[in-house]
Amino acid sequence: MSLATEIAPHLPYLRRYARALTGSQTAGDAYVRAALEAIVEEPESFPKDVDARMGLYRVFHAIWQSASVDVPAPDPETSSEFEKIAHERLASITPLSRQALLLTAMEGFSNEDAGYLIQKDAGEVTSLVKEALSEIEKQTTTSVLIIEDEPIIAMDIESIVTDLGHEVTSIAVTRDEAVAAAEEQKPGLILADIQLADDSSGIDAVKDILEKFAVPVIFITAFPERLLTGERPEPTFLITKPFQRSTVKAAIAQALFFKSTAAVPA
């Protein structure tokens, strides 16, 4: 099996991770592209002592830590203020503690594997994750709109949101309900499912909302690879169903850290 064939299934998830790490679709994809270019140029340097997924993320982190990627600046005429903030924060790089949290909570790596990727031992990763969680507890609270048509899932998300100290302003189950709730309450964050109760689309609901005002968005879907094809504008923050509570917490914290508006598929 060729190296390209081995790493291909893992690329959508690396792109998801890169976007969460950078707070930007453009920046995340730029780092992934640079990692792939490095693999193409020197395939013999690809890690041989680990599986393809670990090797791919290790190459990505080598690129990330070098901070040598030229990330296009946001277009001042088309980019939101949140996207500009995310780009500015790249100058200081996402703290190592948040890298450890995203690798373990969002990407599902063990502490040992995450340590291999960021070149720390498992004990240090444990400490970094605790540090990140402590930072999250100090984060400014906000109001949250949940767009989800499954009552049990909606209740679970609501519990996670309130545990973090945020306020759930409304739970919408259709596109029209979501748009109306957003217009009335102006939430500081949106958590949106893709398929809604009346067969309407959470993506369309978010597009309607973002036409009216800027707000960070996290999409929740059982099929993340369908939104990470590279063929159209895509979400910056994406959670896979079924999800772990720690995954949702990490995504919320990172979205609010950057205050980055998610790009929405056309």
From TrEMBL:
Spans traversing the lipid bilayer: none
PANTHER family according to UniProt: RESPONSE REGULATORY DOMAIN-CONTAINING PROTEIN, STRESS RESPONSE REGULATOR PROTEIN 1
InterPro entries named in the record: Bact_response_regulator (IPR050595), CheY-like_superfamily (IPR011006), PhyR_sigma2 (IPR053866), PhyR_sigma4 (IPR053867), Sig_resp-reg_PhyR (IPR014605), Sig_transdc_resp-reg_receiver (IPR001789)
Domain Response regulatory as annotated: residue spans: 143-256
Stretches assigned to coiled coil: none
Alphabetical keyword list: Phosphoprotein
Protein's name in the database: Response regulator
Signal peptide start and end residues: none
Species, as recorded: Pacificimonas flava
Modified sites of kind 4-aspartylphosphate: 193
Pfam families with a match to the protein in the record: PhyR_sigma-like, PhyR_sigma2, Response_reg
Biological processes per GO annotation: phosphorelay signal transduction system
Domain of life: Bacteria
